[in-house]
Design a protein that fits this description.
The chain has 299 residues and is an all-beta fold. It is 3% helix and 35% strand. It is built from 1 helix and 24 strands. Strands 1, 2, 3, 5, 6, 8, 10, 12 and 14 form a 9-stranded mixed sheet that branches. The radius of gyration is 23 Å and the shape is elongated. The chain starts with 15 loop residues before the first strand and ends in a 9-residue tail after the last strand.
Length: 299
């Protein structure tokens, strides 16, 4: 008797499969890559986490999710938050258009292109975080996002093209603040202002990206991917008595960061200079560097 093995199911570019929430389309069979193609049923509600990898139930092969297709999640009005993994390189045109209850969006490290109308009509979008690898934001990507009060831009002005004065997508009264790295404010303003004048663009560029405090100390994010920070000062009156520095700091109120726990690994130059009321300082083992004059004059 001859035994026949089960037939192998072959996959090719363009084939689709789904999980319980989303449908995926194969874009590269050799490298096992897919893009989010569409949603199932009436669409996801509440929070959605797009996976880094997904198993094709037709052949039991694992694929990396490297893109979000054109109009893939369009008009998912019940969607309030979405996690996009760093495996995603491209967000297609209209991908989240009309997601009218989406409150905020983090474009992670890894994403390079945000397509035309990608988030247009997200009328409740309060904040946007643009990752360091983004090189192109196409026309009207955030059109109609009038509620957005803050844009966190980790990309640099020399690498990022924001087509057709994309900053005009935000609040028409110019009150949207775009937080950029400390040395990038002038460059962004010059690049994105109509006629190179600061009064014609609908955002104000400001330093301070990655700066925050917990009511006691002031922190500076060193690496947003590694979740590491430095202490660069204190809040209010100079600390007195025994000072204990924590090895980690929770930042639950920082909406645009996926993780809220940061490791304190450095104390900046002159962070506690002239704090003459200090009697002792406890520094955690996680701190790897202490800046020059960090405790100057603490005698």
């Amino acid at each position: 008797m001859m035994l026949l093995s089960p037939a192998t199911t072959w996959a090719k570019v363009g084939d689709t499969f789904d999980d319980d929430v989303l449908s995926y389309s194969i874009t590269n069979e050799v490298n096992k890559e897919v893009t989010v193609w569409a949603y199932l049923g009436e669409g996801p509600t509440g929070g959605l986490e797009i996976p880094t990898t997904v198993t094709n139930t037709n052949n039991d092969q694992e694929y990396s999710v490297t893109g979000i297709s054109v109009n893939a999640l369009r008009d998912c009005s019940g969607l309030t938050s979405v996690f996009i993994p760093s495996s995603v390189k491209t967000i297609g045109g209209g991908a989240f258009s009309g997601c009218s209850h989406l409150i905020g969006i983090t474009i992670p490290k890894g994403v390079k292109t945000i397509g035309q109308y990608a988030f247009s009509g997200c009328t409740r979008l309060e904040w946007v975080s643009i990752g360091r690898d983004v090189t192109s934001i196409e026309r009207d990507a955030f059109k109609g996002c009038e509620k957005s009060g803050k844009v966190f831009c980790y990309a640099t002005p020399d690498q990022l093209t924001w087509n057709d004065y994309g900053c005009d997508d935000f609040k028409s009264d110019g009150s949207t603040k775009c937080l950029v790295r400390e040395d990038g404010r002038a460059a962004f303003k010059a690049k994105w202002s109509k006629g190179n004048t600061s009064t014609d663009v609908n955002v104000s560029f400001t330093d301070g990206l990655g700066l925050f405090d917990d009511g006691y100390f002031k922190y500076r994010i060193i690496d947003e991917d590694e979740n590491t920070v430095a202490i660069y000062g204190y809040v209010g009156e100079k600390p007195v008595g025994d000072l204990e520095i924590s090895g980690s700091i929770s930042r639950d109120y920082l909406a645009h960061m996926r993780y809220s726990l940061f490791d304190v690994i450095s104390i900046d130059n002159a962070a506690f200079a002239e704090c003459t009321g200090l009697t002792s300082v406890t520094i955690p083992d996680r701190v790897k560097s202490i800046g020059e004059n960090a405790f100057y004059g603490c005698i």
